[in-house]
Amino acid sequence: HVIVKVPLSKVISHTRRVREERRKGSYGEAVSSAHPPALIIIACKLQLIAEPPNFFFGVSKNFGVIHVGSPAAGMNGVTHAFVRIANHSKFNVYGIEGSWEGLMEARFRELNWGNVAGWMSRGGSELGSKRQLPTDVERIAEALNDQNIEGLLIVGGFEAFHSAKILQDARNNYAALNIPIIVIPCSIANNVPGTCNAIGTDTALNEICRQVDNIQQGARGSGKG
């Protein structure tokens, strides 16, 4: 995360321009007037709510997604977004159930636009997440090769980061691991290298504060607070 200094007058000017274009009904101009990060957010939101067209000409790719580490808020939401955005590009997504143990057993589950509906608001891990590392790299590479996985998304905490490093180090020995491997930090511990804030950390802190408030309220009601 990089904090950039922007003149207040410029920010106000952008905001007023967007508001004016929206008032006139020129929504295309309103989007164009927004900041680049806002454009990315708008584009992603459209892909999450607008079902992709049925027609497609070309060769599709197969992506895998796996949850690693302790379950955390946001794991299902990340997977939901990944699947729907991938579907817009006509990519196939396979969820791996049971973390690395499940991958070694080739427990793949096809994920598509429809069967991830509702995942955004669900806690925990719909695919199943465990605190384990890819110990048997040979079996993992074999399973990825058999399923023709051409890209792997690892969602989780420090174990996810460590797992990606193990797979990267084994690339010279297994051709099936020479694929794009991405880690999305998702952890209540917020201990993933390379990021300031992991997904799920803020939710966990908010929940802790809420429960502390509930305890305090209960103590006051019983005259002990």
Automatic annotation (TrEMBL):
Pfam families: PFK. It comes from the Eukaryota. It catalyses: beta-D-fructose 6-phosphate + ATP = beta-D-fructose 1,6-bisphosphate + ADP + H(+). The keyword Transferase applies. GO terms for molecular function: 6-phosphofructokinase activity; AMP binding; ATP binding; fructose-6-phosphate binding; identical protein binding; metal ion binding; monosaccharide binding. Pathway: Carbohydrate degradation; glycolysis; D-glyceraldehyde 3-phosphate and glycerone phosphate from D-glucose: step 3/4. Residues 63-222 form the Phosphofructokinase domain. The keyword Metal-binding applies. Its cofactor is Mg(2+). InterPro entries: ATP_PFK (IPR022953), Phosphofructokinase_dom (IPR000023), PKF_sf (IPR035966). Keywords: Cytoplasm, Glycolysis, Kinase, Magnesium, Metal-binding, Transferase. One of its GO terms (cellular component) is 6-phosphofructokinase complex. This is Phosphofructokinase. It comes from Ancylostoma duodenale.
